Amino acid sequence: MLVDKIAIVVDDYDQAIRFFTEALGFDLAEDSPALTTEGGRPKRWVVVRPPGAETGILLARADGERQAAAVGNQVAGRVGFFLQVEDFDAAYRRMTAAGVKFVTEPRDEPYGRVTVFLDISGNRWDLIGPVASH
After folding, report:
1. How many CA atoms lie within 13 A of 92 on its CB side?
2. Please, what's the largest Cα pairwise distance for the chain?
3. Residue 115 CA from chain centroid, whole number
4. Which residue in 71, 72, 19 sits closest to 48, CA to CA?
5. What is the per-residue pLDDT across 57-79, written as a single tens digit (0 to 9) for each?
6. For the chain, domain boundaries
7. Which residues, including other chains, have CB under 8 Å from residue 114's CB and lie 6 or more apart?
8. Which CATH number is associated with domain 5-70?
């Protein structure tokens, strides 16, 4: 058994694809048409994932007021997503250069080096690297 995908509600497919592939370095695993929404708007099945990962993120464009209200607040303002990297400093520099907004300074925790960043929708993520060696 495995978690195959999780969904993140976004405002726009293409902007979300650019953020996840260009700013975070994810792979675009799938981008195909899907059945239209109840309102008749076309949908897409868009999946991104970190290189080599099995679990994907389904980028789901908000459809209707209820879903639009969830954009950027999928986990009630908590950090709800965690991106583990092998080289924290390199990932932090690359993401900063790509315009990713960090909301905390990097810090050392017992579980690793960590900082909080916002995705394209405003959801909070932890960027986590190995425990810093001193």
Report:
1. 18
2. 57
3. 14
4. 19
5. 999 999 889 999 999 999 999 99
6. 5-70, 79-129
7. 106, 107, 108, 126, 127, 128, 129
8. 3.10.180.10
Give the distance from CA 96 to its chain's centroid. Answer: 15
Q: Record the pTM.
A: 0.90
Supply the pLDDT for residue 38: 65
- Beta pairing partners, 112: 109
Burial label, 59 (beta-carbon count in 10 A; 0-12, 13-18, 19+): buried
Can you tell me the distance from the alpha carbon of 77 to that of 134, in angstroms, rounded to the nearest whole number?
Answer: 33
Instruction: Indicate whether 93 pLDDT > 70.
Output: yes
Chain centre distance of CA 15: 12
Query: Tens digit of pLDDT for each residue in 13-72?
Result: 999 999 999 999 999 999 998 876 666 778 899 999 999 999 999 999 998 899 999 999
Nearest to 75 by CA among 4, 7, 12, 123: 123
**90: enclosing H helix or E strand:** helix 88-97
What pairs with residue 28 in β-bridges? 48
Q: How is domain 79-129 classified at the CATH fold level?
A: 3.30.720
